[in-house]
Write a structure and sequence with these properties.
It is built from three helices and 46 strands. It is mainly beta and about 575 residues long. Among the domains are: about 80 residues; about 120 residues, no CATH class; about 120 residues, Mannose-Binding Protein A, Chain A (Roll). Strands 1, 37, 38, 39, 40, 41, 42, 43 and 44 form a nine-stranded mixed sheet that branches. Strand 39 and strand 40 form a beta hairpin. It is elongated and about 90 Å long.
Amino acid sequence: MLTILLITAMLGQGQSWDSIGLNFITAFPENIAFYYPVNPVNALNITAVQADTVVTISISDSTWTYQDTLPAGKPVTVTLPLGIEEYRFVQTLQTVKISSTKLIAVQSISQRGDSVQTNVVQPMKNLGTFYSIPALNYSKMINTFFQSTGNISKKYSSFGLVIINGAESNFIKIVKKPRNIISILDPYAVLQLQTDGTEISVQSDYKVAVMLTHPCVEISGCRCNMVVNQLYPDTQWDSRFPVPGILNVRLHLTSSTNIIASGGNIQSGTFEAYTSKLLSLPSLELGSQFINTTDPASLRLVGPGFIIEPIPLSRFSACYLVVPVNLMGANVIVIAETESRNSVYIDGDLLSSTTWSTISDSKYSSVLVTLDDTHVIWHPSTKIAVYVFEKSASWYGGPAISLSANPDPVGCLVAPSKFDIILTPQTWPESHQYCMLISDELFSPSNNVAQMEMVDILNSEGLNERLWIGLRRSLLTLEWYRQKGKEVHNMTYTRWGTGEPRVAEQGMCASVFPNSNTGFHWKSVPCCAQLKSICYTSTHYFLLDLPISNEKPSNSNSNAKGDENV
């Protein structure tokens, strides 16, 4: 078996967070919504980051499967079969598994009548083994917004706690007063429990996804909207929250310790650990606010028919994908540093707006824009936050899909360049074919900058034997050329050692010796020699499969319109 040493040529600064990956698990909780007699529609929106991405979707307890090869940058909607919704408070195999050969983003959509709930499905890499459970009380929550809720059936008097397991048999402990709940989850099983407000945390041996859900949270009168909140592991908690301005909401804090929260005219005082209190935050109706907590915590904005978890500073990203599912389009809130807010891009154009509003007691500003289609919102030099809310009779939405945590001046960087040092000796043709299989090319320096990038990697590894690079002679003309993937390029840059290259009989392919004493010069070698090699994957930027201007960034954006009071 080949041993591959992966070396990243470009490292992100600080904590990295994005919502793209290769493996995902999710489930579809019950959605009775407003039009109860109407059949539900449950679907996945999948966007491939790279071309020719093979995506496979399956349901653990069903023979139903989906497989297709997707293009890059074009969201594809996959409708799941009827009966996928999980309404039972037991362990079942109603888990939806999504896997791909290359990076993808996944968004779930649950719809019944005019009740729609979307959720960014987090990849397995973002899941955790310890989750604190917010003590949300359904009856108290509804009474906060409505004077009388009428009769609430016992089944729907509280939220459902959904735990979704991966490929391993998993030991689950739900810490609960007065007695813990212990369960063994089978591979790809989902467990749903009805909460009563005494649940404190979910702990597991292996990574799981955890959701809070309710099939029909009252909006007004007899109308309701299904809600779902995928929790983040406690390791993703923060104490700094630029909170988007939304009308008619309350703030809910979850913390494992007693904390003090400040900012946004929030009521003062110490909040007990695992409190179920909804805090009034009237300043959010005037615009976005900055909330601080004395210890890391998890925040939620709770309103009639929705639960939204604000993006803390530690999860800000450089690039977001906005995929409205409603034909009416979406309202999008962007939060950026005030001094760099005029450098936010939507696709290839600057977001030009005079309606940015500064967020009190912070270095951030926010703006509301309207979008009518799928777009990428990004910043070339700093991290931002983006929320998308569908234009509809009922309010739903939340954080947009994070594609990349690391800012890049060129665009939405989703895969940095990297070298793979292949330690198994092979011939030059074998090395070239293997590099084509796992990367873009058998590396061939085309200029001094590329040569020095290779030198830095080899210096760090301390190798002392020759490695193949992607240079060889033509069998017809004996001229040297660069084999870059499937393409052939003329030689415009060389770094031959003394007496090199030798005559064709002594070497038709090229290698490099990783030793500073030899200057990392190139040497011609017979192509059938057995050497280690250097594979290279170039930087990859996300591009939508939509008409996007190739002109230089302008000072306006025809797709976005700024609105007041954000």
